[in-house]
Amino acid sequence: KIPVKEREMRKTTLSAQQMKLIHGMELAFYFGDLEKATRLRDQLESMSSETGILSSTPVLAHNQLFLSALIDIAHCRISVKHKRKHLPMAMKTVLELRSLCESGGYHIAHKFIICQAELASVHSEEHAKLTRKKYVEGISTAARGGYVQDAALGALLAANFCEGRESLKCYVGSHLESSFNFYCTWGATAVAESIKNRHPEYFGHNRVAESSGRGTGHLNRHRFSSAIEEHHHKNRRLSSQGSHSAEFKLSPRGKSKRPSFPA
After folding, report:
1. How many other β-carbons are positioned within 10 Å of the β-carbon of residue 120?
2. Looking at residue 250, what DSSP letter applies?
3. Element at 84 (helix H, strand E)
4. pLDDT tops 60 at residue 253
5. Which DSSP category does 167 fall into?
6. 3-class state of residue 256 by DSSP
7. What is the pLDDT of residues 211-228, one digit of tens each?
8. Residues 117 and 134: beta-carbon distance below 8 Å
9. C-beta separation of 132 from 172 below 8 A
10. Helices 128-145 + 109-123 axis angle, to 10
């Protein structure tokens, strides 16, 4: 029988090793090194099969499933042979994420939605606009939950999806900019710079300088285009001049209406 102290030490060591592999897998996938990400994933799964533990903490386990699904889906785009091998593996992992969501894992709903969009992108070329909407749903769900790194990754995957489809190319720039801003907010400036370097045509000098000249928090980024913001500020100035005569619109019950947000 293993003493409690030694068992705890082994668990801590395992957790550190798993965390190192998962972070390495994340970085490799972020930078587009699919070969390295797959190699690290295989090492992690080998460690999990030896110990009988997926990952030592729920957060690591969820990230392992999420990244594993994305890696398999990325392999599906290489060739038909790769697709035959990796698509069933990806679908199995996505079903595991779905099961976790249904059992109360609401905090990983965005991971499941992003994986759904990725699966749809390789499963069928039809309904491309609906697939893009699924990406947007996953990105917004991640951002609302505070999972900025997943929102950034979702936006980058959405940009890659739109870039390969003529009817959706108009959305590529906005998705790349969202990914760039999310990664800056998260503090992953090297990843953000790699996006800019890989897609220089979507990042004009003035546009990037404007982004880097401000802080990286949510309150320091433009939410709309400069024209819309200028119009908004003009309306605010006009409304402030006539603020004494302003009236609040009330609901029939006499209470101010609260804004509604999408589920």
Report:
1. 19
2. B
3. helix 80-102
4. no
5. G
6. strand
7. 443 443 333 344 334 444
8. yes
9. no
10. 160
